[in-house]
Amino acid sequence: MNKFAGASCVRPVILICLILIFISAQNAYASFTWKGEPATLKEIEENVGGYFTDGNGNYKPYNGRLAEQLWEKGLFLGSDGCFNLDRPLTRAEGTVMVLRLLGRIGEVSEATDLVWEMTFADVPDWAQVYVAYAAKHGIVAGYSPEEFGSGDPMTAQQYITLTLRALGYRDNVDFTYEKALEKAVEISLIGGNCYEKYKYSNLFMRANAVQLAYTALYYVRNAGGELLSDVIRMPGRPEGNVPAETRP
């Protein structure tokens, strides 16, 4: 069995939750690996032939324009005026993002009673209704009945598995968790370079999640032969200004 499958609160509590998740994700990605061994971002870049580091070998976020387009549709919101494309996607954030791909946000907002049925003890208040909804409908699962791992980085394999589910592909019928990357290549959700990067490294940032979401919406047919962008209900443009790509 694989290891995964907002109620309101006062603003100080929300801020503390977001800070804890941010610190947890950053610490988990304090070092990068390639085939299980320590590696620099530059080495990973050279192995897959990509371009995601700057002149100093630091991660260079991209997909800002795609993030903005998803934001205009209400599908990728960021936090505190920033998309944070240069940091990992947490499991809580990834769950919410996939629910947006499924067009379920409106439905989730009406299901606040689900939080009382959830057994996970580590889900912050802002994400509880989303995680509860996703768990009840078999979209995600936790490490155990008590632990979801909300602040842990969501891996590429986990996020791609959720995206395949959003596209209507069935676990253990159309694909398996262990072969999720191969299925993603088969349906052109990812290409060869991304397959290598996601299979052999632990590099998966919010910028990568944006690219996958955009591709799933507009370029890949779902299991029924339709584009998600044609069949889901999009929340629409949020209030306020477009978030920045990264923090100063």
Question: How does this structure look, described?
Answer:
- With 248 residues, the protein is mostly helical.
- It has one domain (11-231).
- It has eleven helices and two strands, in the order αββαααααααααα.
- The chain has helices spanning 11-28, 41-48, 64-72, 91-101, 105-108, 128-136, 156-166, 180-186, 192-200, 206-218, 228-231, and strands spanning 32-34, 37-39.
- A two-stranded antiparallel ribbon has the order 1-2.
- Helix 4 packs parallel to helix 7 (156-166).
- The model is unreliable at 5-28 (pLDDT under 50).
Enumerate the strands of the largest sheet in spatial order, edge to edge or round the barrel.
Answer: 1-2
How much helix is in the residues? 40-55%
Total number of strands: 2
Distance between the termini: 40 Å
Radius of gyration: 17 Å
Average of per-residue pLDDT values: 86
Overall structural class, as computed from helix and strand content, comes to mainly alpha
Number of domains: 1
Task: Return the string of H and E elements.
Answer: HEEHHHHHHHHHH
User: What's the main sheet like?
Assistant: 2 strands, antiparallel
In terms of DSSP E residues, the strand content is under 5%
Query: With helices defined by DSSP (H or I, 4 residues minimum), what is the helix count?
Result: 11
Shape: globular
